[in-house]
Specification:
There is one protein chain. With about 160 residues, the chain is an alpha/beta fold. The chain has one domain: Response regulator (Rossmann fold, 3-Layer(aba) Sandwich), CATH 3.40.50. About 35% of the residues lie in helices and about 15% in strands. A 5-stranded parallel beta sheet has the order 2-1-3-4-5, with helices on both faces. Strand 4, helix 4 and strand 5 form a beta-alpha-beta unit. Helix 1 packs across helix 5. The longest helix is centred in the last third of the chain and has 18 residues. The chain starts with 11 loop residues before the first strand and ends in a 17-residue tail after the last helix.
């Protein structure tokens, strides 16, 4: 069953130059029954237009590829972390790079998580489903109204 996109939920920004990878993220979201709209930017310039447009869209989080055409994901992340309205937005790197230098550079720049794309399609989908569940059901995101999310409220 395909979940309906709900306009009352914040969209998720997916910054990846690969249409195939965006399709995989979309399949994982459907399988995880995520109702948030997925917004696709294929490069840093397009992502920047979406992130810094007025009025600002409150994204739940951003999935960011390391290697983008032109400007790389690290440069975009650094700009996001300097922007007053975006500096607390969760950013999850979604990349094929297992290079420790890439991983360490992204963490030093303020990424919230570094997620390596898995080669096996089914394992990759399951892994992405867990990313969605973690960031949308187990974490209280900046600016979230927890009184209406149905999340557990711990005393």
């Amino acid at each position: 069953m395909k979940p309906l996109v709900r306009s009352d939920l914040p969209p998720i920004l997916v910054v990846d130059d690969s249409d195939d990878d965006f399709d995989t993220v979309s399949i994982a979201a459907r399988r995880a029954r995520i109702s948030n709209l997925l917004v696709h930017a294929s490069d840093a310039d397009e992502a920047r237009r979406l992130l810094f447009a007025a009025p600002a869209v409150a994204y739940a989080f951003m999935l960011l590829d390391c290697n983008l055409p032109g400007e790389d994901g690290l440069t975009l992340l650094e700009e996001v972390r300097r922007h007053p309205q975006r500096q607390t937005m969760p950013v999850i790197v979604l990349t094929a790079s297992i290079n420790p230098r890439d991983r360490d550079a992204f963490y030093a720049a303020g990424v919230n998580a570094y997620h390596v794309k898995l080669v096996n399609f089914e394992e990759g989908l399951a892994s992405l489903e867990s990313v969605f569940h973690y960031w949308l059901t187990h974490v209280v995101l900046p600016g979230a109204d927890t009184s209406s999310t149905g999340k557990h409220q711990w005393l």
